[in-house]
Amino acid sequence: MSQTLQSVVECAGGSSWVDVVTAIAAAAAITAAVSAFYSYRLSKRIYDEIKSDEELVTGPVHHPSLRHSEHDACVLRCSIFNKSKRKAFIKSVCAYDRNGKDISISWSGKHDHLGNIEEPTGLLGVTDQVNLSIRRNDGDAFLFTRIVIQHSFSDGVLIVEFDPHGGLG
C-alpha cells in the first residue's frame, strides 16, 4: 500500500481498505449524478430557448384575384411567415366547411392564371415567407372554410379561417 493511502486509512480510524475505497466510489457516484442532473437541466433550457422562436404566422386568407373571376371563388391564398431562422415545412393542409365536413382540396406554393395548383408535392418549405394556394377539387366556391395546416415546428396545427361574409352569414 502506498504511503499516502496508508495514512488515509490510519486517519480513518483503522478502517479497512475496502471501506475507504467504497466511500470514495460512493462520493464519485453522487458527484456524477449531481453533474448529470445539472447537465440535463442546462441542455433542456438551451433546447427550450432554441425552440421558442419556432413559430409560423399566417396573413389573412383571401381569393387571389385571378384573371378569370369565375375561377377565383374556388381558390384561396394566404401568406405564411416563418419567424425562426430554421426552415419549416408544411406537411399537410386540410380544409373543412362550417359543419366540419372535409373539403377535397389541392395545395401548393403556387398556382397558374386560372388557379390550377402547380407542383402539388405534399411538402412545402418555408424559409421566410411563402404564399399557400388552395383549390377546391370540385370547383365549387369556398364559403366558410377552416384550414388546418400541419408543419414541422410542432405536433400542433396552425388553424386559419376564411369567411367571405365576415361572420355575418
Compile the SSE list and pairings.
Elements: H1 3-11, H2 17-51, E1 56-58, H3 69-72, E2 75-82, E3 88-96, E4 102-103, E5 105-108, E6 110-111, E7 117-118, E8 124-126, E9 129-136, E10 145-151, E11 157-162
Antiparallel strand pairs: 1-2, 2-9, 3-4, 3-8, 3-10, 5-9, 6-7, 10-11
- Strands, count: 11
- Averaging pLDDT over every residue, what do you get? 84
| Helix percentage | 25-40%
CATH architecture of the largest domain, by name, is Sandwich
Largest sheet: 5 strands, antiparallel
**DSSP helical segment count:** 3
CATH topology of the largest domain: Immunoglobulin-like
CATH class assignment of the largest domain: Mainly Beta
End-to-end distance = 92 Å
- What does the radius of gyration come to? 30 Å
